[in-house]
């Protein structure tokens, strides 16, 4: 073992040696062992230090790319609530800010609706029904909802006065609640048809639309049922009423039907767009009918529902929408994306 | 020993020169036949988990050589006969390109992209636009609608704004020849390009095709760098020998190295020309040192016939040790890279080690042997003498070493070492910029890549496989489908991942189609029974090969393909960490997740391997260096001393790389490894000269002055010449070469500076025994005032 320098070191070592021979030795040994420590250290580092990759963290956004939002309702404090994929419920304010709400299901939610006083209900796949009574601060799953052994997707829920609600779905599901969604019962027996939407008319009447152009009308809230003649065979997806008598139903392949007598007779209206239509709504503030559907399609008509116009929300946005919710001068749309439409300009959220 | 070798070389100089000439002649025949090409397979660390998955599934789920072609229009959309015709021409033309896997050509015009239709007659699938183009306006409109309805096409193969269409094509890895593919696809593209329709092409074969495309330019740069080196040497050394002998040394070792490597069956990667330049610069350095020493000796020898031979003999004897140590240290440090499991690096290491070792003959022996024939050793060729200028620099170095300023030098060096060492830890592994780091951002390839990434989900792909061999039909199970779906959702949260695709995306589309196009059913079935019947329907309507992109033939393994917008190191690291996080949190009852294939998968493997061996490489190279110095100088202190300039130049260079966002990748690792040995050459020559002078009784101050003026002059000349000529690379069209040129220049500069300015101070202050001898040696006894 050699020393770093014999010409410089003696000054140190001999000076120290005068104080303590032992200390001098220790210093000497320490100094001369440095190279070996370095060699050992390098060997150790070379053989045993294997850095592992470290990934960054990613925070999932509220609106994920794969999210579908099938249902939309006005929020109690302005803005809207939307519900969709994986049981997600979001509150969106008028500035487009998104806030997630604590959901109580992993099932995809198909629709959401609210009563006054911060009470709300959401329905979805596998017969999932969620309710809130505190303005959406918490949602709880409802047990004991009537189920079919075959299929249980609930597609729409409509609410009426005094805590009434009707949900439609697969296997003839037509479920009724009169206590803000806490308990549910069947309005009709199970049957192999999917009911897609229901309108709750002033005075307690119900108009139900479904697969294969089927329509049901009940003047007494589900006590008795009539099956009016329908001029189409394609599935009807949505129905809405402006008054107790005047209503519009829309469906696949751009079908638009109108009634002037509370659903007993239906006429098909001419409309240029043959994309599927999934929702229709009466926009009272602007006195017009609005409908939306596949490939960014929209339809629009005046109060008489005879002069139908159609178009595409945006050349570059061909997303489908299952709901349209008129609100003030604009309308909110929900589906493959969420956005606002003022009749000419379309603003999608988030993307 | 050294004396014997030198005596032999001088005595039998004709024989030595003759043998070397003969060998050079023979090897040049092989050297000229060395294959210049990039072999992608060589870049893969074959035992890495990801690479094994990649190799196992690449033929089914897409290899790393996928080429993506985009046709785009500025106005209108692609649903126009002219554009569709071009898509079809390209799609059909691609079948003729060499090494193409004909089952892996996908576009609107291929048989693979189909529409599933449900009608009263049942369910049918039919290709969107195969074999014929739409015949009329109605069919064109129907095609557009069919595309818009199909999320497997609208988005992945037709851009969301309908202004671009994509064609992807994969190759049979073993057979792919990048230059050929590049030229053939280039010719195809030329045929369809027009004012209205732009075509953009990316993919590994195209990237490496571009590299080979620039080969002539690269060779011109090599020639220019060489010419500049020689011109500078001529200017500074003012003798023909100072020009011709270094050139000869470089040429001989290049010939030998390439010839031997061809005999060993190693090909030459165009990208490693930089490494070749680096080694040649070593040859020039060593040779210049010897010529320089020869010139020095001439001054001390009285006129006579034997002058040249004598001077050459002295130069050979005195420089044999530092020259050899320099060469061996270079080679040994480089050899450490061979520990890497990446074949390309192993081959490159072999090439470099062989090349560096040839310097022992070409520079250390051949140069002095040829010098011995010099007839008129004195006198210069031209009158412009720049030596006084260089001497001023050396005098400054001397002043720094001998004045009080030496303590400041050491202090500053420590400071630089610590701060650059700290900053060096910011060095990233993997590419640091989007696009390919091999080319400049404004290069066609990178522009194309950006354009495609803007319109589509992402160019670079990674596939993750879920399933288990032998479990037929496992992918059809509810559990696997749901897991795939959750996995895709989880991964797509990362912004750099543009999208993903798997069989779990096909099932919801089918589900929706069967439900009259109702989007409320665009989801996987809720139960195994539903999904099972959906999969059965899918199988019944698809032809063999249709589902290849998603599942293997027994449906035992399925892939999830993730599309990446860039392949920066950080992006890939995050993605891999997230894949692992998901797999850990979502264990499967049957089957398992297998990571990860495709270009991103293997890039991840390469990055992980490079990261894991980063410390190993540097530490072991330093260890080797220290051991060599310890053995040669029989002193561990020598090892420590010579590590100093090496560590300084390493930390500074790594810090520079971190600062300039040059990532540590398969392309930069060899340069970095070679750089470790590079830093030490200059130090050897200077320290050795000091040692020699001290040994013959010169005072330390004088020894340092002499060393700086002779060996230091050599260092200064070679460093300045080589720095200038490597800086020429900055104009290269290949960003990689430009940056590596700059890196080498910096490396050379720092190591020269630390040898000239720092090392003498350190030697003077610490007076190591291996240079100054033991204090009891009578030779040195009187030089230092005794402290006692």
Structural class determined from secondary elements of chain B: alpha+beta
**Roughly what is the average pLDDT of chain B, rounded to an integer?**
84
Largest sheet of chain A: 4 strands, antiparallel
Low-pLDDT ranges of chain A = 11-17
CATH topology of the largest domain in chain A: Methylamine Dehydrogenase, Chain H
Distance between the termini of chain B: 40 Å
Q: What's the total count of β strands of chain A?
A: 27
The most extensive contact between chains is: A-B, 61 and 64 residues
Write down the CATH class of the largest domain in chain A: Mainly Beta
- The total count of helices of chain A amounts to 2
Describe, in short, the structure shown.
The complex is a heterodimer of chains A (351) and B (788). By secondary structure, chain A is mainly beta.
Report what the structure shows:
The complex is a heterodimer of chains A (351) and B (788). With 351 residues, chain A is mainly β. Chain A has two domains: 1-53; 69-348, Methylamine Dehydrogenase, Chain H. Helices cover 11% and strands 36% of the residues of chain A. In chain A, a hairpin with a 3-residue loop joins strand 2 and strand 3. In chain A, helix 1 packs across helix 2 (21-48). The longest helix of chain A has 28 residues, at 21-48. The termini of chain A are far apart. The relative contact order of chain A is 0.08. Chain B is of the alpha+beta class. Chain B is built from 28 helices and ten strands. Chain B has helices spanning 2-11, 13-31, 49-61, 81-94, 137-149, 178-192, 204-213, 215-237, 241-263, 273-300, 307-335, 343-371, 387-402, 405-424, 444-455, 478-491, 503-514, 528-541, 569-585, 598-612, 614-633, 636-659, 669-678, 681-695, 700-727, 735-766, 769-772, 778-781; strands at residues 67-73, 100-106, 114-119, 122-127, 164-171, 197-203, 460-467, 497-502, 557-564, 592-597. In chain B, a hairpin with a 2-residue loop joins strand 3 and strand 4. Chains A and B meet through helix 1 and helix 2 of A and helix 5, helix 19, helix 20, helix 21 and helix 22 of B.
């Amino acid at each position: 073992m050699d020393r770093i320098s014999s010409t410089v070191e003696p000054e140190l070592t001999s000076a120290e040696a005068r104080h303590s021979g032992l200390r001098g030795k220790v210093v000497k040994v320490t100094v001369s062992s440095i190279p070996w420590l370095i060699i050992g250290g390098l060997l150790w580092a070379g053989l045993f230090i294997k850095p592992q990759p470290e990934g960054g963290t990613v925070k999932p956004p509220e609106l994920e790319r794969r999210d579908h939002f099938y249902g939309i309702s006005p929020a109690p404090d302005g803005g809207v609530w939307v519900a969709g994929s994986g049981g997600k419920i979001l509150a969106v304010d008028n500035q487009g800010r998104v806030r997630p709400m604590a959901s109580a299901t992993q099932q995809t939610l198909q629709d959401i609706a609210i009563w006054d006083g911060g009470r709300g209900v959401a329905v979805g796949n596998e017969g999932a029904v969620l309710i809130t009574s505190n303005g959406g601060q918490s949602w709880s799953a409802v047990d004991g909802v009537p189920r079919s052994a075959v299929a249980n997707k609930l597609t729409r829920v409509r609410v009426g006065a005094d805590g009434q609600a009707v949900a439609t779905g697969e296997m003839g599901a037509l479920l009724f609640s009169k206590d803000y969604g806490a308990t549910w019962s069947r309005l009709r027996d199970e049957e192999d048809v999917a009911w897609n939407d229901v309108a709750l008319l002033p005075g307690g009447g119900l108009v139900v639309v479904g697969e294969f152009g089927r329509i049901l009308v009940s003047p007494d809230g589900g006590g008795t049922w009539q099956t009016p003649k329908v001029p189409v065979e394609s599935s009807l997806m949505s129905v809405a009423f402006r008054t107790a008598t005047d209503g519009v139903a829309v469906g696949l392949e751009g079908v638009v039907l109108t009634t002037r007598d509370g659903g007993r007779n239906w006429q098909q209206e001419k409309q240029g767009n043959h994309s599927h239509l999934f929702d229709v709504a009466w926009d009272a503030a602007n006195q017009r009918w609005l409908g939306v559907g596949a490939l960014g399609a929209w339809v629009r008509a005046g109060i008489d529902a005879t002069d139908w116009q159609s178009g595409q929300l945006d050349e570059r946005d061909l997303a489908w929408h299952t709901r349209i919710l008129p609100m003030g001068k604009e309308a909110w749309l929900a589906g493959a994306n969420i956005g606002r439409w003022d009749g000419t300009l379309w603003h999608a959220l988030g993307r | 020993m050294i004396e014997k070798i030198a005596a032999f070389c001088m005595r039998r100089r004709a024989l030595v020169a003759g043998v070397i000439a003969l060998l050079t002649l023979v090897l040049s025949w092989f050297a000229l036949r060395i294959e210049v090409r990039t072999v992608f397979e060589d870049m893969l660390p074959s035992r890495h988990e990801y690479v094994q998955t990649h190799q196992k599934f690449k033929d089914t789920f897409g290899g790393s050589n996928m080429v993506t072609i985009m046709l785009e229009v500025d106005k209108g959309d692609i649903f126009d006969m002219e554009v569709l015709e071009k898509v079809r021409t390209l799609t059909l033309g691609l079948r003729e390109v060499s090494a193409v896997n004909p089952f892996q050509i996908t576009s609107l015009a291929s048989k693979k992209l189909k529409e599933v239709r449900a009608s009263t007659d049942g369910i049918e699938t039919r290709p969107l636009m195969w074999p014929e183009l739409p015949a009329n306006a109605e069919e064109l409109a129907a095609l557009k609608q069919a595309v818009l309805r199909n999320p497997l096409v609208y988005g992945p193969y037709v851009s969301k704004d309908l202004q671009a269409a994509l064609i992807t094509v994969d190759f049979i890895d073993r057979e792919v020849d990048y230059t050929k593919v590049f030229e053939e696809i280039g010719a195809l593209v030329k045929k369809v390009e027009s004012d209205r329709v732009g075509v953009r092409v990316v993919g590994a074969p195209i990237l490496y095709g571009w590299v080979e495309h620039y080969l002539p330019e690269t060779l011109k740069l090599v020639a220019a760098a060489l010419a500049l080196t020689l011109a500078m040497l001529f200017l500074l050394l003012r003798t023909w020998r100072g020009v011709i002998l270094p050139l000869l040394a470089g040429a001989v070792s290049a010939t030998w190295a390439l010839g031997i490597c061809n005999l060993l069956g190693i090909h030459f990667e165009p990208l490693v020309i930089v490494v070749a330049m680096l080694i040649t610069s070593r040859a020039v350095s060593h040779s210049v040192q010897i010529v320089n020493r020869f010139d020095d000796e001439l001054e001390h020898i009285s006129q006579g016939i034997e002058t040249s031979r004598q001077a050459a003999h002295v130069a050979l004897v005195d420089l044999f040790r530092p020259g050899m140590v320099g060469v061996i240290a270079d080679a040994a440090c480089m050899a450490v890279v061979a520990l890497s499991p990446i074949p390309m690096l192993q081959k490159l290491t072999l090439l470099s080690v062989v090349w560096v070792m040839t310097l022992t003959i070409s520079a250390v022996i051949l140069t002095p042997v040829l010098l011995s024939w010099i007839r008129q050793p004195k006198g210069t060729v031209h009158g412009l003498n720049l030596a006084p200028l260089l001497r001023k620099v050396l005098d400054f170095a001397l002043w720094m070493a001998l004045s009080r300023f030496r303590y400041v030098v050491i202090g500053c060096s420590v400071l630089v070492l610590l701060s650059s060492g700290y900053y060096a830890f910011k060095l990233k592994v993997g590419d640091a910029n989007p696009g390919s780091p091999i080319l400049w951002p404004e290069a066609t390839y990178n522009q194309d890549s950006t354009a495609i990434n803007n319109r589509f989900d992402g160019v670079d792909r990674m596939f993750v496989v879920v399933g288990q061999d032998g479990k037929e039909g496992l992918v059809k199970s509810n559990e696997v489908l749901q897991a795939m779906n959750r996995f895709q959702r989880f991964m797509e949260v990362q912004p750099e991942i543009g999208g993903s695709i798997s069989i779990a995306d096909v099932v919801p589309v089918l589900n929706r189609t069967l439900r009259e196009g109702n989007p409320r059913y665009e989801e996987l079935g809720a139960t195994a029974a539903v999904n099972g019947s959906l999969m059965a329907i899918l199988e019944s309507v698809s032809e063999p090969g249709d589902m290849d992109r998603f599942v293997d033939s027994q449906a035992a393994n399925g892939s999830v393909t993730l599309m990446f917008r860039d392949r920066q190191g950080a992006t890939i690291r995050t993605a891999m960490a997230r894949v692992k996080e998901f797999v850990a949190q979502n264990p499967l009852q049957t089957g398992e997740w297998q990571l990860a294939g495709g270009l991103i998968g293997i890039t991840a493997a390469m990055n992980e391997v490079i990261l894991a061996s980063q410390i190993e490489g540097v530490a072991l190279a330093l260890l080797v260096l220290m051991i060599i110095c310890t053995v040669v100088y029989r002193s561990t202190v020598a090892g420590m001393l010579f590590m100093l300039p090496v560590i300084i130049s390493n930390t500074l260079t790594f810090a520079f790389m971190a600062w300039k966002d040059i990532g540590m990748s398969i392309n930069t690792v060899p340069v970095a490894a070679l750089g470790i040995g590079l830093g030490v050459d200059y130090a050897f020559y200077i320290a050795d000269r000091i040692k020699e002078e001290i040994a013959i009784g010169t005072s330390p101050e004088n020894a340092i002055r002499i060393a700086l003026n002779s060996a230091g002059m050599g260092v200064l000349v070679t460093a300045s010449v080589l720095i200038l000529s490597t800086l020429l690379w900055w104009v290269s069209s290949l960003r990689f070469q430009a940056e590596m040129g700059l890196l080498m220049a910096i490396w050379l500069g720092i190591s020269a500076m630390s040898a000239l300015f720092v090392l003498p101070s350190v030697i003077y202050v610490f007076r190591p025994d291996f240079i100054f001898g033991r204090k009891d040696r009578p030779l040195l006894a009187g030089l230092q005032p005794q402290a006692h």
